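Contributing: when you submit paired examples, paste them exactly as shown. First protein:
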Amino acid sequence: MSFEFDSALGRSVITAGVVAAAYLTVFVARRAMRRILDEPQQRYHATRFLRLITWLAAAVALVIVWQPLGGSLAPALGLATAGLAFAMQEVIGAIAGWFNITFGRVFSVGDRVQMADVHGDVIDISLLKTRLMEIGSPGGASWVAGRQYTGRVVAISNKATFTAPVFNYSSYFDYIWEEVSFAVPHHEDWHRATEILAEEARASSASDGARTAIDEVRKRFPVPTAEVVPRVYASADETYVRLAVRFVVPIRTARQVKDGLVRRAHDRLEEAGIEVVSPQVIQSARAEWVPIGEIRTPDREATDEKADGPP
C-alpha cells in the first residue's frame, strides 16, 4: 500500500514530526540561551518566550496539516492574522516592550524605577506587564511622600517603555543626591550655621560608597567625574541667607538619613542661638522681614498697651 501525505496516516506522521521538531527547537533554544545570555533573568524570560513562539507555530502547522482544504486556508489565515495584529496593537506593543526591557537592560527585578509616572520597586516582569511595589513621592498621586512603600502593587504595560521615559534609580548607581535648605536671617551668625551644617552633612553623606560606585559606572560609560563630597551652598536676598546642604546617600535610606540630619542640625543651631526662619511665613505675613521675637499679633498688642497704660 502506497504512502500518501493526504491520508490519515500521512497526516499522523507529519503531526509526529511537527511535535518532535517543536521539542527539539525548545531544547536547542534553551541550550543556546545558556551560552548567549549570562544573566539568569534574561535567560529565563528569553527561553519562556521562545518556547511560547515555538508551540504557537507548531499549533498553526497542525491546523494546516489537518485541514482538508489546507491550500485554500492560507489566504484566510493571512487575513485573520492581519486583523488579529491590528486588534492586538497594545499586546504587540507590550511584547515589544518586554524585549526592550529584557535585552535592552532597561531595568530588572529589584530595581527602583519611575515608570509611567509611578515610583516603585520592580517585583515582577512578565511578557505583557511590569509590576511595581509602589513608593510615595513628592508631588505624586499617593498619600505617602517619603519614598516609602504605600502597600499598593501597580501593574504597568511594558509598552510604556516606548511612550514615556523610564527613570532607574538603582541599576548602575545606587545613590542619589539629596538637598536640604535652611533660611537664616542676615543678622544671625550664618558663618557658624554653615560650619554646623557642613559637619552634619559630612556625618550623613555616603561619599566613599558613592565614589566607588561612580568608578564602576565610568568603566562602562563615558561619564564625567561627579562631586560626591558634601557641600553647603549659600544664596541670599534682602530677607535671608539660604543655606543649601547637598550630600549623597543610598537610595533606599534617603528619608531616614535626611530626617536625622534635619533633626540634629536644628538642635545644634538652637544650641548655638542661631534662628532658622521660614521664608514663606514671613513673606506672607509682612512686606519686610521682622525677627520672630518681635512679631506682635493684634491681640498681643492690645494686651501690651493695656498693661503699659495707667492703672
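Second protein:
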Amino acid sequence: MADRFEARRGALLAEIERDATLERSDFLVRAGEQLDRFLTANAERIRELGGMVLIDDDPDYLAVAPDGTFRSRARVYDEGRGEWVSETEVIETAAELAEIYNPADVLQAFIDAQAAEPPVEEQGEAGGGDEARLDDPYAGAADSWAAGQPDVPEVEDETDAATALYDLTLDFQERSQQAEAGLLEQFENAASGLLGMVRPLTIVEGDDEQLTLEVGGFRGRVVPEGQTGWQDLGGPDDIVRFYDPTDVFGDLAEAIADAYPHAAEAAEAEKDGRAGGPDDGDDGDDDEDEDDEGELDDPDGDDGEDEGDEDDDA
C-alpha cells in the first residue's frame, strides 16, 4: 500500500513539474517578446541617451547599453577564495533578461530611471525657481560628499588607531577598485556598438596572462602569483585586481593601431590638422606683412627720384 501511494505521489509530482515547466517556458517566451517589442520601439531613444542605468543598488546593478544589450552585476560568495566577489554578466537578448529579472521589475526600472531626473522646467518648479537653487550652490555637493565618507570611529590609543587606519585603508582600496572597475565598465558600454564591427583585439598575451577586447567587453585570464592554474577574469571587477586601467587603455590603443594602422594615422592627422591650422594662417599673415614692408620701401625710391629732380633744378 505504501509503495503504491509513493508511486502515485511521485507520478502526480512529475505531472505538476511537467506542466509547470511548460507554463514557465511559455511565460518566458511571451515576456521576452514583450520586452523585445518595448526595447525595439525605444532603441533610438536609448541609443541617443547613450544607455541607461536601471538598477544601482549595491551590490545589484543593471544597465542597458546604447546597442540594446544589458550589463548585470551581482555580488556572490566565492567559497574557493573565501570572499565576496562581484560578477558582471552581459545579457544579449530580452529573452535572456526575462530569465534573470522579473519583466515587470525591468519595466518599472525604466519608469524610475525616467522619473529620477525630471525635465529642467519641472526642476525649476519643484525647487522654487533658479533663485532658490542659487541660494547655496554648494549645499547639494557637500551633502553628497558627506554621504560618501566612511564612518571613522573615535579611538583613544595607538592600537585602536592602527586598527581603524587598517580598516580605513581596506575600505579605500575597495573604493579605488570599484572606481577603476566603473571606468572599464563605462568604456565597455560606450564601445558596445563598435565592437561588433571590428575583430577581437588582443591587449595582453603571455604565458601566464591573456586579455582581449571583443563583443561583450573585456575577457581574460591569468595565473595568479604563487598558483599554477588559470583564473578567469569575468569582468571589470576582476580585471582591476591585476591590471591598472591606464595600462589597459594604453595597450589597447597600441593593439588598435597594430590591427588598424589607418585608424592611428587618421587620428594623428586630425590632431596635427587641429594643431597646425592656426600656424598656417599666421604664415599667410607674415607674407602679407613682408609685402607691406616692400610697399613701405617705395616711398624711399620716390624720395630718391625727388632728390634727383631737385639736382636738375639746381
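If you have annotations for the second protein, write them as plain sentences, like these:
Residues 7 and 301 are 125 Å apart (CA to CA).
Confidence is low (pLDDT under 50) at residues 116-147, 280-299, 307-314.
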